[in-house]
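User: Could you check the structure of this?
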Amino acid sequence: MKFNFKAFTLLAPISLTSMFLALSAIGISQSVPAVMAQKNQYLGQTRLSPRETNLEYLRFPICQTPPLKEIKLVAKKGVAQIDRLVVQYGNNQIEKLQVRDNLNVGMESRWIDLKGGKRCVKAIALVGTSERVKRNSVIQFYGR
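Assistant: Sure, the predicted structure tokens are below.
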């Protein structure tokens, strides 16, 4: 069955207000803003041990996550010293990002820009140490 564009244009024009009212009557309008508000996406987490200069990876299935423009780190457990991030893109290009941040429990890093706008990210490596002698730090990754 083909779509008849001519017949469609002959239908009475629908204003945006009446379309919004119709959608809100069936409850769709309430779900659209909630989806749009979820800008910050949880990407995963890794643990940093108290050894000097850890290298921890977070890998993704190729382009399964939406393209990212920025990355943020959040310390969920322990105290961590983050030196840098190494980001591998879908085309296997690698970018080294200097972070140099100390994160206590509950603290967040700034949003770290990725070069070239929104990019498909394949993996993120975190280089840093846990400040605790006997406990690992847990670092969560967010993207947008």
